[in-house]
Design a protein that fits this description.
By secondary structure, the chain is α/β, with parallel strands linked by helices. About 35% of the residues lie in helices and about 20% in strands. The strands form three sheets. Strands 8-9-10-12-11 form a five-stranded mixed beta barrel. A hairpin with a 4-residue loop joins β11 and β12. α2 packs parallel to α3. The model has no long low-confidence stretch (mean pLDDT about 95).
Length: about 300
């Protein structure tokens, strides 16, 4: 496949946030991933088409739009003039002023462009939450995954992004038990949570995908991978509770979903009184239950 056309969707029944896929496919070949074999090369949707759909969605009442893609930070490299994701973000915020909140899905930190970093610093409507595709914290494992960053790159990116936007909150994808991973190498992934200041973790025990290079590597035992994933999730729960505690007493603007709301930082909030889905509310955080914030 060579081209990607935007699916013209004016609403998402049952959702208070709208999702716009601006990119599909991937030009990289991470050894654990089957996606490029099924979805082909990276393909982007033209900025004008994305802006037009964002405007329609905002006009139809959506208060938050999420830009998605298989390799979102590769956006634009296949388009005339090679506009990057930062240019797309700025175009949406400039041409759709009625949109209160714009959010990004998973990012590859080494592909984030300078304009996107400036947008983080300057655009209040770009939400202060980034979900990063990190996968591991050990350099040798990252090389065997054929990732494009090393441990220091991930830490440096988080430090610079937080310098530009001090209230930034990070999520991350992490794989436990990748082939050949030793206990010492796994410890490097555990410690990355604190060194990057991660809050919202998506943890996966490694599962081989037929036809990928990683499936042919010496495997870590399934039970070992599951046990490491459990330990990584425990570290993530500690990090989340630390974040929740730091929010007590703060005033946050939340977007009401069905039974709960989300802050600008994508943190779950239980409200003290019901509100209509899709409503933006200013609330004071009174406490937390270990998993979500509690509004006064």
């Amino acid at each position: 496949m060579r081209d990607t056309a935007l699916h013209l969707i004016d609403g998402f029944e049952g959702h208070t946030r709208a999702f716009v896929q601006v990119q599909n496919g991937c030009d990289h070949r991470c050894t654990f991933c089957i996606i490029p074999y099924g979805r082909g090369a990276s393909r982007s949707v033209a900025i004008g088409e994305v802006v037009a759909q964002a405007r329609r969605l905002a006009e139809n009442g959506y208060r938050e739009i999420v830009l998605t893609g298989v390799d979102l930070t590769a956006y634009g490299l296949d388009l005339p003039g090679r506009p990057r994701l930062g240019a797309l973000v700025r175009a949406i915020l400039r041409h759709v002023p009625e949109l209160p909140r714009l959010r990004l899905s998973s990012l590859d930190p080494v592909e984030v462009d300078a304009d996107l970093m400036r947008a983080l610093a300057e655009e209040a409507r770009l939400m202060p939450h980034l979900h990063l595709s990190l996968q591991a914290g050990d350099n040798l494992i990252l090389r065997r995954m054929k990732r494009r960053h090393l441990r220091a790159d991930a830490i440096g990116f988080c430090e610079e992004a937080r310098r530009l936007r001090p209230d930034l909150v990070f999520g991350a994808d992490l794989i436990a038990g990748f082939p050949t991973e030793t206990e010492a190498q796994f410890q490097n992934t555990l410690s990355l949570v604190d060194e990057c200041g991660l809050t919202h973790l998506h943890v996966f025990p490694f599962s081989p995908r037929q036809g990928t290079p990683a499936a042919r590597m010496p495997q870590v035992g399934r039970e070992v991978a599951k046990e490491r994933a459990r330990r990584l999730r425990e570290i993530g729960e500690i990090a989340l509770r630390r974040h929740l505690a730091s929010e007590i007493g703060r005033r946050r603007r939340v977007l009401m979903e069905k039974a709960e709301a989300k802050t600008e930082h994508f943190t779950r909030v239980l409200l003290s009184r019901p509100a209509a889905p899709g409503t933006l509310l200013d609330v004071t955080i009174a406490g937390h239950d270990g998993r979500r914030l509690l509004a006064a």
